[in-house]
C-alpha cells in the first residue's frame, strides 16, 4: 500500500534516495531540480537548482551532509544538504549524460 505521495516536481522524477539516517528523502527530476523532503511529514524542506538539464541521479553522502547529483548536462554537482549551496561542480571527463552517482561508504 502507498504510504505517502510527495508532490512538487514539475516533470518526471528520475531518481530517489533516502538519507543514511532515514530522516530525509531526495528526489531528482527532469524539471532540473532536486527536492529534499522530510521523510516523516512529506514536506519539501529544500529545493536545489542550478543544473542545465535533467537530473538523472541523486545520492546522499555516508554522513548525510552532502548530496551528489548526476545530470544530462554532463556534470556532477555536490551540494550541502543543510544550506542548499553547491560546493563543487565536476565538469571534466563526461561527454554524455551522467546517469548514475554513488558515494563511497567511507
Search tags:
8 strands, WD40/YVTN_repeat-like_dom_sf, four-stranded antiparallel beta sheet, single chain, 106 residues, Thrombin, subunit H, 43% strand, repeat
Description:
By secondary structure, the chain is mainly beta. It has a single domain (13-90), classed as Thrombin, subunit H, CATH 2.40.10. The protein is 0% helix and 43% strand. It contains no helices and eight strands. The protein has a four-stranded antiparallel β-sheet, with no helix packed on it. The chain is globular and about 40 Å long. The relative contact order is 0.19. The model has no long low-confidence stretch (mean pLDDT 93).
Seen as an oligomer or otherwise, the chain set is single chain
Given the helix and strand composition, which structural class is it? Answer: mainly beta
The tally of structural domains comes to 1
Contiguous low-pLDDT stretches (5 residues minimum) are: none
So, CATH architecture? Beta Barrel
**What is the gyration radius calculated from CA atoms?**
13 Å
The tally of helices reads 0
* N- and C-termini, Cα separation: 35 Å
Order of helices and strands: EEEEEEEE
Overall average residue pLDDT: 93
Helix content: under 10%
Shape: globular
Largest sheet: 4 strands, antiparallel
How much of the sequence lies in strands comes to 35-45%
Blueprint (SSEs and pairs):
Elements: E1 13-18, E2 24-29, E3 33-38, E4 44-49, E5 55-60, E6 66-71, E7 76-80, E8 86-90
Antiparallel strand pairs: 1-2, 2-3, 3-4, 5-6, 6-7, 7-8
What's the short story on this structure?
The chain has 106 residues and is an all-beta fold. 0% of the residues lie in helices and 43% in strands. The protein has strands at residues 13-18, 24-29, 33-38, 44-49, 55-60, 66-71, 76-80, 86-90.
Amino acid at each position: 500500500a502507498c504510504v505517502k505521495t510527495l508532490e512538487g516536481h514539475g516533470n518526471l522524477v528520475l531518481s530517489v534516495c533516502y538519507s543514511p539516517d532515514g530522516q530525509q528523502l531526495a528526489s531528482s527530476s527532469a524539471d532540473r531540480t532536486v527536492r529534499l523532503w522530510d521523510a516523516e511529514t512529506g514536506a519539501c524542506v529544500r529545493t536545489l537548482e542550478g543544473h542545465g538539464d535533467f537530473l538523472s541521479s541523486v545520492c546522499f553522502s555516508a554522513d548525510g551532509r552532502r548530496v551528489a547529483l548526476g545530470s544530462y548536462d554532463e556534470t556532477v554537482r555536490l551540494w550541502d544538504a543543510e544550506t542548499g549551496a553547491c560546493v563543487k561542480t565536476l565538469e571534466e571527463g563526461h561527454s554524455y549524460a551522467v546517469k548514475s552517482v554513488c558515494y563511497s561508504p567511507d
